Amino acid sequence: MIAPSILSADFARLAEAADSVDTADWLHVDVMDAHFVPNLTLGLPVVKSLHAATALPLDCHLMIDDPDRWAPGYAEAGAANVTFHIEAANDAVQTARAIRKAGALAGLSVKPGTPLEPYLEVLREFDTLLVMTVEPGFGGQEFMAEVLPKVRLAREHVRAGHLRLFIEVDGGIASDTIEAAAEAGADVFVAGSAVFGADDPGKAVEALRAQARGSMNV
Ligand code: DX5
Ligand code: ZN
């Protein structure tokens, strides 16, 4: 699946941005609070309005402190998938359960420097694992291939039947990096600048999907 990140879109025209990528599978919405990450983006009211303005499933990526308090609200606001960071969570299991109870898929994200091994059991409570392939906070950064072993490890656990997860990569995904991520075992690809920086965002989504399909290893 391809999930264009609206972080790279025109924030005054989010509904039009969503329309321009109606070829996408999910619409990736980066929520940043200027605490967990230095940047500040948008929150619940915008997610609610966006949900009303597009048929695309919203993939909310919460880069915020205290997700235990805020994450279920994004599910109630209509998000299809709500991902929060393990580094910020107090009780990841309880928060995942609250997200699912509110009707969304639950996602767990790890920053590039956070190992996956300690969370393999906790991941049984989740539907999505988001492996950051840049430091969270900004679009347009360079892809970090050194985190791909985490994607491989997660894929091995899925293949062995130990976990059932979407394995999502986020940061620096473009035509020159998506194949390596697909080969490592990712099946959801977030792309901000590579999609909204293209002349035709809808076509960019299709081109990325075709490229990923050719290298998929799931
Ligand atoms: C970064 C965000 C990403 C960002 C990716 O913290 O989580 O979703 O939009 O942007 P690109 O694809 O430009 O690296
Ligand atoms: Zn993101």
Question: How is this structure best described in words?
Answer:
There is one protein chain. With 218 residues, the protein is α/β, with parallel strands linked by helices. The protein contains eight helices and eight strands, in the order E-H-E-H-E-H-E-H-E-E-H-E-H-E-H-H. The protein has an eight-stranded parallel beta sheet with strand order 1-8-7-6-5-4-3-2. Helix 3 (67-76) packs parallel to helix 4 and helix 6 crosses helix 8. It is globular and about 40 Å long. The two termini are 13 Å apart. Bound molecules: D-xylitol-5-phosphate and zinc ion. D-xylitol-5-phosphate is lined by residues 5, 7-8, 28, 30, 61, 134, 136-141, 170-173, 190-194.
Layout of SSEs?
Layout: E1 2-4, H1 14-20, E2 27-32, H2 44-53, E3 58-63, H3 67-76, E4 81-85, H4 92-101, E5 105-110, E6 128-132, H5 148-159, E7 166-170, H6 178-184, E8 188-191, H7 193-196, H8 201-215
Parallel strand pairs: 1-8, 2-3, 3-4, 4-5, 5-6, 6-7, 7-8
